[in-house]
From TrEMBL:
GO terms for cellular component: cytosol; Golgi cisterna membrane; Golgi membrane; trans-Golgi network. It comes from the Eukaryota. Its main location: Golgi. InterPro entries: GPP34-like, GPP34-like_sf. GO terms for molecular function: phosphatidylinositol-4-phosphate binding. Belongs to the GOLPH3/VPS74 family. It is found in: Golgi apparatus, Golgi stack membrane; Golgi apparatus, trans-Golgi network membrane. Residues 23-37 have a biased composition (Acidic residues). PANTHER family: GOLGI PHOSPHOPROTEIN 3-LIKE, TRANS-GOLGI PROTEIN GMX33. It is a peripheral membrane protein. Residues 10-22 have a biased composition (Basic and acidic residues). The gene is GOLPH3L. Keywords: Golgi apparatus, Lipid-binding, Membrane. This is Golgi phosphoprotein 3 like.
Length: 240
């Protein structure tokens, strides 16, 4: 399981840090669902693509129905889940679809080359590019970020969700943003998201994200208006 870590030069944030941002919280608590108002209208990313982009220094899908999505990876995943009898748990599907299990009776359900396929999708959308690097005995394909504007938009969206737009209640958070925070934490890329913040804001952001992902998924998933699948995915990662 991945963990949230602080930069070594930082001290654990105290109560004073929270007080300094309380005024910002009060100002923004009334509009938790407006986070995407500044999103790019030209480029639409899947959650998998957003998590991979956050993890690149220049994994896990939430499914609501078995209707085709138009995304090859998502539709392949839906096809596997729909065809499986008896049904599997969320944790089992995460292990199968990410290749974390080598059960010989389940190999047909593993998605192949997931990271590379997501990267190619981002290349097609103009966010990454493809380069060949020579390592003496072999060549390696890499995918550097070319559209830094899109990545920074995504980084700012997550930073704002735990700072300026923090609502201190996961049930009031934008559901897609909540899902992305959970997946970014489970993929160990939150450090990338918050690394550009000042020391004070970094500590506040990390502590709030830590408090969020350490909530009991069994309890949160049963609350009114909760998106059960988000908490089921978090619970599965917590057990891994």
């Amino acid at each position: 399981m991945t963990t949230l870590t602080h930069r070594t030069r930082r001290m654990e944030v105290g109560k004073n840090s929270e007080k300094k941002v309380e005024s910002e919280e009060d100002t923004n608590q009334d509009s938790p669902d407006s986070e995407d108002s500044g999103d790019s209208k030209d480029i639409r990313l899947t959650l998998m693509e957003e998590v991979l982009l956050l993890g690149l220094k220049d994994k896990e899908v939430l499914l609501k129905s078995d209707s085709p999505t138009g995304d090859v990876l998502l539709d392949e995943t839906l096809k596997h889940i729909k065809a499986t009898e008896p049904t599997e748990t969320v944790q089992t599907w995460i292990e199968l679809l990410t290749g974390e299990t080598w059960n010989p009776f389940k190999l047909q359900y593993q998605l192949r080359n997931v990271r590379e396929r997501i990267a190619k999708n981002l290349v097609e959308k103009g966010i990454l590019t493809t380069e060949k690097q020579n390592f003496l005995l072999f060549d390696m394909t890499t995918h550097p970020v070319t559209n830094t504007t899109e990545k920074q938009r995504l980084v700012k969206k997550l930073q704002d969700s735990v700072l300026e737009r923090w609502v201190n209640d996961p049930q009031r958070m934008d559901k897609r943003t909540l899902a992305l925070l959970v997946l970014a934490h489970s993929s160990d890329v939150l450090e990338n998201v918050f690394s550009s913040l000042t020391d004070e804001k970094y500590d506040v952001a990390m502590n709030r994200a830590k408090d969020l992902v350490e909530l009991d998924p069994e309890i949160e998933g049963t609350k009114h208006s909760a998106t059960e699948m988000i908490w089921a995915v978090l619970a599965a990662f917590n057990k891994s």
